Amino acid sequence: MRFPSFPTIVRTFYLFGNATTRRLPTTSLRQPTLRSIPTIPFLGSLFGTSTRNNMSYPVQKTDDEWQAVLSPEQFRVLRKQGTEAPYAGEYDKHMPSSGTYNCAGCDAPLYTAQQKFKSGCGWPAFFDTVPGAVVRHTDNSFGMERTEIVCSNCGGHLGHIFKGEGYPTPTDERHCVNSISLKFKNDGESKV
Ligand SMILES: [Zn+2]
């Protein structure tokens, strides 16, 4: 493992994020009297992102409409910036010679099989995208600055980009993508 501490850090954030989300019932946020409590803005900045909410995307759906077409886990990751458990996703070790990985929300082609590489990080890794398919946002959650990646067609959360790690790829970028945000299609199977 090139970066032995990285999966541990991410797993910690994953567990922390889930635990904290469960402790924050959405009903409490709807009570005006709680809005002045300092912990609410703190948690908002912890889980919020700075730029993504200003974007508009061609595919627009309400949360109710997304929940009608996505599984609960897909909705949590794609629409609520969740993270799936490492080494558990359907496409982590999936290495086809051709085909595309489409958005699980809107079916837009995001990555080709040729752009995937083995990173060992526990999530599917890509070094490049289908041109224009992915938008980058600054993500300030968890008290650090990262680059979030979302589908440019529907705004669905895909994962994050990490740069300069030294992988022998043409871009030295790792698009760390949740399997559940993707749907693999063989060549000719994609609608778009
Ligand atoms: Zn999409």
TrEMBL record:
Source taxon at top rank: Eukaryota
Pfam families, alphabetized: SelR
Cofactor note: Binds 1 zinc ion per subunit.
Every MsrB domain range: 63-187
E.C. number: 1.8.4.12
Alphabetized GO MF terms: metal ion binding; peptide-methionine (R)-S-oxide reductase activity
Cofactor(s) recorded in Swiss-Prot or TrEMBL: Zn(2+)
Enzyme category, top tier: oxidoreductase
Keywords, sorted A to Z: Metal-binding, Oxidoreductase, Zinc
Catalyzed chemical reaction(s): L-methionyl-[protein] + [thioredoxin]-disulfide + H2O = L-methionyl-(R)-S-oxide-[protein] + [thioredoxin]-dithiol
GO annotation, biological process: protein repair; response to oxidative stress
Keyword hit for RNA-binding: no
NCBIfam families noted in UniProt: peptide-methionine (R)-S-oxide reductase MsrB
PANTHER family found in the cross-reference section: PEPTIDE METHIONINE SULFOXIDE REDUCTASE 2 (PTHR46081)
Similarity annotation: Belongs to the MsrB Met sulfoxide reductase family.
Name the record gives this protein: Peptide-methionine (R)-S-oxide reductase
Lineage of the organism: Eukaryota, Fungi, Dikarya, Ascomycota, Pezizomycotina
